[in-house]
Design a protein that fits this description.
This protein is mainly alpha-helical and 178 residues long. The chain contains eight helices and two strands. The longest helix has 29 residues.
Length: 178
């Protein structure tokens, strides 16, 4: 019962015709996807190869480095199909002027959680969070933490600078304090 079944010649021709156009078409699609998804710019190349890990402990620090080096304060990450910006005018435009034009979408909501949603869900979660963050227990806890940080970290730096008679860059010190 192990007899081979011979296909009619029409079926063989159809199979050859299918693979005759499907393989080149698949090759063309893969070439286009490679160019679109796997960009060869330095940002995409560093992300895809993981070479950014040599100098940075996490992705956020690498992005901050890229944004500092960017003359516009904006970086395009082609492999994600997104743009990251630290330009104050762009941030205001996105978060205040035209907030509804910049939905975060389902992939980022799934990745980043509760506060990364759009529309009515965002309004609802904002109200819930503001009620929670405005509670006396959260405010007193935050006050306790800030008071402890001021006492143990900021005041020693300020008093040490005053004892030595050196000029301190307060903006830099406050940045480090945060």
């Amino acid at each position: 019962m192990d007899a081979l079944v011979e296909l009619p010649s029409g079926a063989r021709c159809a199979g050859l015709a299918f693979f005759g156009w499907a393989l080149p078409a698949l090759g063309a699609v893969l070439l286009l996807l490679r160019r679109w998804l796997w960009c060869s710019c330095h940002v995409c190349r560093a992300y895809l190869t993981g070479s950014w890990r040599r100098d940075f402990t996490n992705l956020g620090k690498w992005y901050a480095h890229l944004l500092r080096r960017s003359p516009t304060g904006t970086v395009h990450v082609h492999v994600f199909g997104c743009t990251i910006t630290a330009n104050p005018a762009n941030v205001e435009y996105m978060l205040k002027t035209r907030f509804d034009n910049f939905p975060k979408g389902k992939p980022f909501t799934a990745l980043l959680g509760i506060f990364n949603v759009d529309g009515d869900m965002w309004r609802h979660q904002r109200k819930v969070a503001s009620l929670e963050l405005g509670s006396v227990s959260v405010q007193s806890y935050a006050f306790k933490i800030v008071a402890q940080e001021v006492e143990t970290r900021l005041m020693p730096v300020l008093s040490d600078g005053a004892d030595r008679g050196t000029v301190l860059d307060l903006q830099d010190e406050f940045r480090r304090f945060c």
